[in-house]
Amino acid sequence: MDDGRAGKVTFADLELLLSFADTEHFGQTATELGVSVATVQRGIRALERKLEIRLVEQDGRRVRMLPAGHVLVREAHAVLRARSDAVGAALADAGEPQRLLRIAHTYSLGLGFVPGVLADLLAERPELRLRCTQSPATGVVEMLLRGDADAGFSSVAPTETDLVVEPLFTESLLLAVPIGDALAGRERVSLREVSERPFVAMEPGSSSRTHMVNACARAGFVPWITVEGNDLFVVESMVGAGIGVSVVPEGMNDHQHPRITRVPIDDPSFSGRTIFLAWHRSSTVADSVQTLARLARAHGKRMSRPLRRVQ
């Protein structure tokens, strides 16, 4: 029993707590919200007084969330998503169209595939307004579960039962090598041929890195990663500078780089990567998401093409 304490907590209280939970830092939370540090501190303490429990602990200059705070944050995500869903359902029932569609996608899919799908979507549904957010694969799933995105594109299939996951198409991975490399003139290459060479990779958590590491593992080795980045164009520029080689998605073939060549990978156990679209089962924008899924499937068929080497 909450003996009336729950009734004292407002949506604003929960939104403040969620903002604080992202960093567990009063100053960063204040900057993000555009308020003073004192305002954030007073808001957290006021919430604690309403609940009559401690949510955060301060030890000198260090602040950390207590277990009760983490529990409240987890449940607050569901509460705020339910509020958004309720408002969306009411507006839809009143005949007002849902105009905003929030889409999350991984970095590599933002190069060609996602823009192409969204162009088709807007051509068919011009009343929609789209908000796109790039994130690592894990971030795409988190945004869907928190209700911060209505649909998400990723090359790693979410396993959460709250999400509907639909495979769209499979694309190959390519080995990126410097333009003058001995492998640059090859039609195909085995990853085993670069097992002793340094690699350039995306940051941990990105789907491109996951697929690269898995492809190397299937070839029988662990890649020696010397440089990490959070942008595929930067990764390829590092390769072009001769720092190492890398494994990149076939979608990078939409863009030419003057200092690298991308060579198809030919290993017996290698099958490329599958692109997925996911959305929440309780979505209140199901009609828009279904249209998005239909167009994504059609675009995926057009994306499937024979491997080619691009210089």
UniProtKB/TrEMBL annotation:
User: What InterPro entries does this protein's entry cite?
Assistant: LysR_HTH_N, LysR_subst-bd, WH-like_DNA-bd_sf, WH_DNA-bd_sf
GO molecular function list? DNA binding; DNA-binding transcription factor activity
Q: What are the protein's UniProt keywords?
A: DNA-binding, Transcription, Transcription regulation
A Gene Ontology cellular-component term: protein-DNA complex
Q: PANTHER family from the xrefs?
A: HCA OPERON TRANSCRIPTIONAL ACTIVATOR HCAR (PTHR30346:SF0), TRANSCRIPTIONAL DUAL REGULATOR HCAR-RELATED (PTHR30346)
Q: Which family does it belong to?
A: Belongs to the LysR transcriptional regulatory family.
Q: What is this protein called?
A: LysR family transcriptional regulator
* Source organism (scientific name): Amycolatopsis carbonis
